[in-house]
Each structure stands twice: as structure tokens, then as C-alpha cells.
Amino acid sequence: MNGTKAFPHLHDHAREALQLGKQERIRKAHALPWINYPAAETLHLDLEHLLTLPASHRPPCRALLAAPNNGKTRLLRRFAKKHAPPEEPSMDDEPLEVPVVLIEALDGPHERQFFNQVIDAFGVPFRPDDNIHRLRYKAERLLTYFKTRVLLIDEFHVIASGTPAAQRNLLNILKNLSSRRRMSIVVSGVQEATAALAIDTQFSSRFRPVHLPLWGGNAWRRLAHSIEGHLPFPEPSHLAEPRFAERLLFEAESTIGGLIDLLADMTHWAIMRDQPKLTMETIEQCGWIKPSERIRTASAAFF
User: Fold this and answer.
1) Which of the residues in the chain have pLDDT under 50?
2) Whole-model pTM?
3) What is the CA radius of gyration of the chain?
4) Which fold has domain 38-212?
């Protein structure tokens, strides 16, 4: 059979992976490429729009809200990577700019932690225990020097762990930083982040909420079908078949991250046992536990 016609349910890289050993097939299956979907594309275009806007003393900002494990971190990483400076700039390049800076996980609600993370994102040496005024000055100088236009802050909901005074102080810092540097700020977190934003009405009014909804219906089936083409199995698993897709939706708790984790566990189990495809039985066989049940299951093992 012509190699280009064999295994038509697979993308080229997954078809080629069938010739590899088990561990390499598993590694290839775990390295899923970016799979686009409408909500992600809409958000990406909105973030691109922020980069094109003229400088303003009240730059538009966004609050990206989503359930845990529903893809917000990967979205922000993809946007930041697209606008990252070259790793080895040539002498002919324009002066180095870093238009997008990503803080992957806010450490806490305090200004010292925040400024340390901003400086660290640029990869320059500094003293984390330095005077807070010096840290603030250095962070702002870096944002100005590298002409940063959009600052992304993931896991923003962690500021709710601080006192109301600490939360309000950090919100004021972000608001003033956005105005002085004429820079849009995009915060991302679970729904609890809205409570933190609500502490300061001036702050919350500047941040337009953007929601990544939970999955379901035909969109979920299309997602499952898209991912299946990247899993190196010689036979189709038919993940988008209604009963199979509904079971995956239940086990993954309607999140894209849950689905990717579930299929990774299933794929590992099936490849190691020379299974030609994934089935609904693979879910139990691989020992999958739904994310919401893991703490209860772990606790039950000790008591």
C-alpha cells in the first residue's frame, strides 16, 4: 500500500511515529501541537488588537476567566511566544523590543513579589531583596526600554490570598503602571479572580472580562476528532463518536486540559500493551481519576 494512503485517520507526523519504539511513540503523542478552536482564535485576535492600538493614558485591559485546566495558560504562552524577540538577534536587526511579557504564575499579592517577577521575566540579574523603590524603578525601566505594550499575568486569582489592603495596593500598582507606561495588562485566572478585581471599581472597570466557556456539543466532538489525528495508533479510535465523546466529556469535566491529560494516560496504557486503538474500556484500564475526585481519592487512601 502506498505510504501516503496508509492510516488516513492520522496526520503525517503521527503516521511516521507508528514506526518508532513504544516510548518514542508515547513521547510523540504527548507533544501535541497547537489545536486551534473558535474561542481561542477570538481571544488571540483580541490580544493582537491590543498591540496595534495607539498609546493611551487609559489603555484597554482584559481579564481572562476560565475554569481550571481549560487552556488559558497555553493561550497566553502561545501569544507571548509569537511575539518573543529572536534568541540570537543579528547585528542587522532593529533595537531589541519585547512587546509582550508573560508572568506565568503570580507569586502572591505583594508588590515586592510582583516587581521581582517582572524583572525576572526579562532575564536580567537583580537582587530580589533589594529596596522596594529600586525594584519598582528597575521593573519600570525594563518595561520602558524594551517597549513592552502588553503585560500578561497568569494565575491572577492568587492575590485573593492576601489581605484586602494588600490586594488593593497591588491593584493600584497595576493601574498606575498601565497608565504611566501606556501598556495594556491582561490578567488570567479562575472565577475567584473577579472578587479580587471588584475590590477597586476603577480597576475593574478598566478590565473587560473575557470568558473561556466549558466545552460540550459539536465543538467538543470536533476537538476530540482533531486530537485523534495526532495519536499514533494504526486503527481509528472514533473519539468523536457520540457515546465515546460524551464519556470523554464527563471524565475530562468539560475542559480541554482534562481531555489532553485523559488521552495522554489512555495513550500511554494502550501503547505499552500493543493496543491498536483507544476504546471506552481504556479509561478504566489506565486508572484514570477525574480531577475533582483526586483529593478525595488520595485522602481515602490514608484513612
Assistant:
1) 1-3, 299, 301-303
2) 0.87
3) 22
4) Rossmann fold (3.40.50)
